[in-house]
Specification:
Layout lengths: L12 E8 L7 H6 L2 H12 L8 E4 L2 H12 L6 H8 L4 H14 L3 E8 L3 H10 L5 E5 L2
Antiparallel strand pairs: 1-3, 1-4, 2-3
């Protein structure tokens, strides 16, 4: 018989972090020639980057991300500096904060999104977006 003595979760979702370079506007002459592109972009923005639910957070600036960070980790300190110092350089939260801050400073936008583990289509889409340069996808955690 197995006895589990650690934290147990019934969560059936995973969090993904998607960092991406600004998506350029498509020139009107291209849209005139390929009108489906406008619909395609609306679908991508709505279903991948949408921030209309409680499971998605989107950031375009370091300031927006820092507000999110403080809302989620303020029990470790009253400022970001106190939190980072309290946790130490080897802590995964500190490493993620530093990495995400750097990418935001480089001009990337970022989405943190929870996806139901049964939504294999969305998971597949997000994981296939990763190219290491224009789209950087990290997850499941």
């Amino acid at each position: 018989m197995k006895i589990i003595s650690d934290f147990i979760t019934n969560s059936s979702s995973s969090s993904y972090v998607i960092m991406y370079k600004k998506i350029p506007e498509i020139r009107q002459e291209i849209l005139d020639e390929y009108p489906f592109l406008k619909t395609f972009m609306v679908i991508i923005e709505k279903y991948v980057f949408d921030n209309d639910d409680e499971y998605t957070s989107t950031f375009s600036t370091l300031e927006e991300y820092n507000i999110y960070f403080m809302e989620n980790y303020s029990y470790y300190g009253e400022t970001i500096e106190e939190i980072l110092e309290y946790l130490g350089d080897d802590d995964i939260i500190v490493k993620m904060h530093n990495k995400y801050s750097k990418k935001l400073k480089e001009g990337y936008s970022m989405v943190i999104r929870d996806i139901d583990d049964h939504d294999t289509t969305m998971i597949d889409i997000i994981e296939k977006m990763h190219d290491g340069e224009n789209f950087i996808v990290e997850g499941k955690w």
